């Protein structure tokens, strides 16, 4: 049986009197156990912490709560205490109310509750964080009898559903920050290549749509780097705001553990991990191969336009090319002079009547050829100026390297990045069978296709407890912190990748070491912030001891104190 409950605040004299009596009762109970304010003492309390302690509690302020009655909502201040044994923060008055509701103990509290006006706080309430508004209503079918005076509970005491309103709220916040961070980080990462590719448009006359295609092809590689950074930024910004505005405190004092609060962040990290894995394993090899093909085609079609008539073309390293007349329609030219200084021992001077431009298909170091006819080749020695040779030829092929811009663009494409998982495994097996050291870089590339996606999940796990611990994590602070952690992560990754590619350490260890490091730090932060014994004490102690030198590497671990309200 469902009953529509009133949503208005109960401002009747009876409700106000009830709230005052509850506040007075709280003060009396806390003063009996902890002493009056300003004169703290500790004696055995009429309540117990979940660790079993009945002494050693300290006041930790009060938090606004919304009690649900049959006539409306009543606002009270619910005081919380901290246990010195396990550092758990909870509301003893809520525990006493629940005990008294079942007639357990203590009798004094039950007597005071029976003296209050009839009231009931229905379980199953859900509050929008920070708003103080009741959003959902639920009345237990078993409670169809008239309400008892001691039938009291606190909002959010019932366990949340697998996907609650709070989860959707946090996921929306993370999605907005993630989109902003992804656009920013990707733009910054692509800026260097965009400046280089702009030279193709300005100086080489390449069509804009071709350059845009090239940027689109290199985008998947950039996304595998920027998605983990954006996930970290989204989690830090969202949970930092929730913590700074006190929403995390309300949720924690209402019965939600840190691990339950982290569930949306972990879910967000899992989705980002799957997306990054799909890009890294399936999309990136094809896009890298397509970008290499496009660069080669652009190199072939636009190499001719880089030659100008009547001037020395010096953009080709070690060559100076002079052309009297150039026919761009068919790629032929007349009257050519070439000065070739690429040899360390000789200098070549080529003079020919006519020729044409040649292109050859090949790898990233594709060469452009000039085929000249009816000319002379003059060779002079650099070491011996008196040594000179003169050769006549009917046809002479001269290989011309790519321009710097195109060569750099082509050089960025590594062979391993063009292979999918099956091709990488097959190539590694062949090289390892022959004992070839070239298998090491391919092993690094294979493990990177999995380590970068897993980094999304690890960074999301470290972001939530870190943001809650910092408390005042604005978007600017979150951005700076996410960049700092990302730089630390990618420095470790670059170092491990370099050592693994040279065979100084195992390639798998070099690639996975950053994830292992950040992961253990994340576990330490969760244990330090959560303070919940879901792991054996010996295991928690071993993890903390193992990671003490890594924890000191983060300045926040040195200065930040545990949250005074969260368990």
Automatic annotation (TrEMBL):
GO BP? lipopolysaccharide transport; transmembrane transport
Query: Per the annotation, which location comes first and is thus the protein's main one?
Result: membrane
Q: Does the keyword Glycoprotein apply?
A: no
> Sorted alphabetically, which keywords does the UniProt record give?
Cell membrane, Membrane, Transmembrane, Transmembrane helix
Record's keyword annotation contains Zinc: no
Checking Pfam families in the record gives: LptF_LptG
Transmembrane segments in this chain: where?
A: 169-190, 210-237, 258-279, 477-496, 508-528
Domain of life, per UniProt, equals Bacteria
* Localization in the cell: Cell membrane
Q: Name one GO cellular component term.
A: ATP-binding cassette (ABC) transporter complex
- Which membrane topology describes this protein? Multi-pass membrane protein
**PANTHER family, per this entry?**
SLR0882 PROTEIN-RELATED (PTHR33529), YJGP_YJGQ FAMILY PERMEASE (PTHR33529:SF6)
Annotated protein name in UniProt: LPS export ABC transporter permease LptF
């Amino acid at each position: 049986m469902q009953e529509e409950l009133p949503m208005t605040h109960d401002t009747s004299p009876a409700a106000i009197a009830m709230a005052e009596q509850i506040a007075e009762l709280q003060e009396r109970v806390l003063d009996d156990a902890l002493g009056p304010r300003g004169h703290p003492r500790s004696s055995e309390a009429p309540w117990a912490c979940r660790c079993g302690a009945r002494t050693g509690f300290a006041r930790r302020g009060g938090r606004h709560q919304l009690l649900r009655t049959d006539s409306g909502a009543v606002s009270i201040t619910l005081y919380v205490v901290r246990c010195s044994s396990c550092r758990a923060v909870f509301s003893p008055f809520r525990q006493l109310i629940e005990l008294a509701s079942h007639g357990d103990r203590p009798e004094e509290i039950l007597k005071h509750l029976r003296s209050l006006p009839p009231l009931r706080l229905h379980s199953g309430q859900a509050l929008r964080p920070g708003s103080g508004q009741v959003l959902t209503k639920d009345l237990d079918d078993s409670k169809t009898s008239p309400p008892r005076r001691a039938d009291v509970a606190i909002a959010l005491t019932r366990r949340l559903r697998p996907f609650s309103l709070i989860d959707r709220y946090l996921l929306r916040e993370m999605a907005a920050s993630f989109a902003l961070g992804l656009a920013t980080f990707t733009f910054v990462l692509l800026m260097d290549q965009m400046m280089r590719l702009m030279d193709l448009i300005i100086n080489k006359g390449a069509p804009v749509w071709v350059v845009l295609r090239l940027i689109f092809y290199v985008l998947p590689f950039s996304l595998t780097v920027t998605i983990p950074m954006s996930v970290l930024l989204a989690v830090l910004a969202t949970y930092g705001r929730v913590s700074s505005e006190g929403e995390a405190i309300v949720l924690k004092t209402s019965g939600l553990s840190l691990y339950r609060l982290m569930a949306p962040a972990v879910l967000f990290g899992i989705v980002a991990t799957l997306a990054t894995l799909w890009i890294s394993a399936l999309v990136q090899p094809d896009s890298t191969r397509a970008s290499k093909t496009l660069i080669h085609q652009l190199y072939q079609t636009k190499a001719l336009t880089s030659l100008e008539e009547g001037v020395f073309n010096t953009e080709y390293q070690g060559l100076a090319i002079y052309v009297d007349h150039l026919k761009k329609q068919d790629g032929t030219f007349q009257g050519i002079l070439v000065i070739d200084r690429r040899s360390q021992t000789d200098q070549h001077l080529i003079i020919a009547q006519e020729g044409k431009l040649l292109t050859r298909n090949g790898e990233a170091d594709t060469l452009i050829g000039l085929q000249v006819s009816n000319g002379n080749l003059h060779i002079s020695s650099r070491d011996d100026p008196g040594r000179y040779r003169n050769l006549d030829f009917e046809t002479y092929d001269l290989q011309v390297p790519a321009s710097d811009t195109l060569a750099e663009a082509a050089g960025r494409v590594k062979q391993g990045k063009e292979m999918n998982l099956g091709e990488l495994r097959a190539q590694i097996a062949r090289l390892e069978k022959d004992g070839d050291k070239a298998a090491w870089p391919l092993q690094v590339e294979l493990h990177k296709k999995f380590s970068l996606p897993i980094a999304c999940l690890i960074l999301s796990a470290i972001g939530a407890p870190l943001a809650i611990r910092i408390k005042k994590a604005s978007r600017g602070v979150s951005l700076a912190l996410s960049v700092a952690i990302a730089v630390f992560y990618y420095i470790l990754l670059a170092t491990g990748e370099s050592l693994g590619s040279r065979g100084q350490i195992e390639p798998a260890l070099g690639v996975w070491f950053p994830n292992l490091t950040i992961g253990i730090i994340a576990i330490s932060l969760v244990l330090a912030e959560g303070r919940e014994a879901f792991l054996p004490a010996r295991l928690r102690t071993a993890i903390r001891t193992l990671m003490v030198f890594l924890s000191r590497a983060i300045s926040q671990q040195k200065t930040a104190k545990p949250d005074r309200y969260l368990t």
